[in-house]
Amino acid sequence: MSSKLTPDNDLELFFSADLIPDQVKAQLHPDVHLRPLASTDYQRGHLAVLSVLTVVSDPGESNWLAQFHSMRAASKTYYPIVIVSKQTDQIVGVGCVFIERKFLRGLGSVGHIEDIAVDKSQQGKKLGLRIIQTLTGISENSGCYKTILNCSDENIPFYEKCGFQKKENEMAKYAPERTQPSPRL
After folding, report:
1. Which of 153, 157, 85, 154 is nearest to 119 (CA)?
2. Is 135 helix (H, G, I), strand (E, B) or coil?
3. What is the mean pLDDT of the segment spanning 34-61?
4. Any idea where the domains of the chain sit in the sequence?
């Protein structure tokens, strides 16, 4: 199988690929590549994969790109990732964590995981798990004291396997206790 994958260094990435945990990359299915969202990912089917979650209206490429740059300008806030098929250079999985800064918990931060989706043709390869592990790692490495997400009741068992616990109306995973604060990404 020949690879059509566009190398990361040929892309305008949303954030540095160095923030993606190496241990997750090592466990990834060999047919796919995990990286930050790129400015050309509209053309790689970003919205089509998101449509697994809900109805997605197509704003057009120029508006999608404007949103990409607007979100990226909010430095150290949004961390959207994609999983790309090496064979087709098309997106097969997506997810995002955004960092909420708070006044409580010693000016702590909370990571919010959103928009987890895997193309139906790629389900069963643990891509959803790798997306969650990546986003949780980014959240914890940003100094967040917890990472939360909302999900439907039928998805609770999946997120529990990822280390999350049901807390009131959200799923939460608390970062390991630290003796010193982690540097913010």
Report:
1. 85
2. helix
3. 96
4. 8-174
Q: What whole-number distance in Å separates Cα of residue 165 and Cα of residue 151?
A: 12
Bridge partner list, 111: 99, 147
pTM of the model: 0.88
Q: How far is CA 148 from the centre of its chain?
A: 13
Nearest in space to 147 (alpha carbons), one of 122, 177, 126, 170: 170
Separation of alpha carbons 4 and 94, rounded Å: 19
What pLDDT sits at residue 72? 97
Give residue-wise pLDDT tens across range 99-129: 999 999 899 999 999 999 999 999 889 999 9
Distance CA 102, CA 108 (A): 5
CA 95 to chain centroid: 3
* Helix H or strand E encompassing 85: strand 78-85
CATH fold for domain 8-174: Aminopeptidase (3.40.630)
Indicate the SS3 state at residue 27: helix
CB 100 within 8 A of CB 77: no
